Amino acid sequence: MISKTGEAETITTHYLVFLGLYCTWCLVNWIWRFYFDGFFDLIAVMASIVQTMLYCDFFCLYITKVLKGKKLSLPT
């Protein structure tokens, strides 16, 4: 939806940021489990890394636009 219209409402951007933070915390969880429990699941770790990397671009847009009080619009 954001790619079609080029803009997003504030509530939508907050929702997407929290989804991205969830993926980031999953990655932290897998690192924690590896160091303290000795458990390692390669597929889960790689999926968490890929998901977090996909959200990184959105995090940058969120920080530069929404946290400064502007409406999120995709760069042209």
- Round the Cα radius of gyration to an integer and report it: 15 Å
Strand order of the largest sheet: 1-2
The low-confidence runs, each spanning 5 or more residues with pLDDT under 50, are none
Helix and strand content put the structural class at mainly alpha
Give the distance, in angstroms, between the N- and C-terminal Cα atoms: 16 Å
User: In which range does the helix fraction lie?
Assistant: over 70%
What's the number of helices? 3
Largest sheet: 2 strands, antiparallel
Envelope shape: elongated
**SSE succession:** HEHHE
Number of domains: 1
Average pLDDT for all residues: 84
* Strand portion: 5-15%
User: Would you count the extended β strands for me?
Assistant: 2
Explain how this protein is built:
The protein is mainly alpha-helical and 76 residues long. It has one domain (2-67). 72% of the residues lie in helices and 5% in strands. The chain contains three helices and two strands. Strands 1-2 form a two-stranded antiparallel ribbon. Helix 2 runs antiparallel to helix 3. The longest helix has 28 residues, at 10-37. The radius of gyration is 15 Å and the shape is elongated. The mean pLDDT is 84.
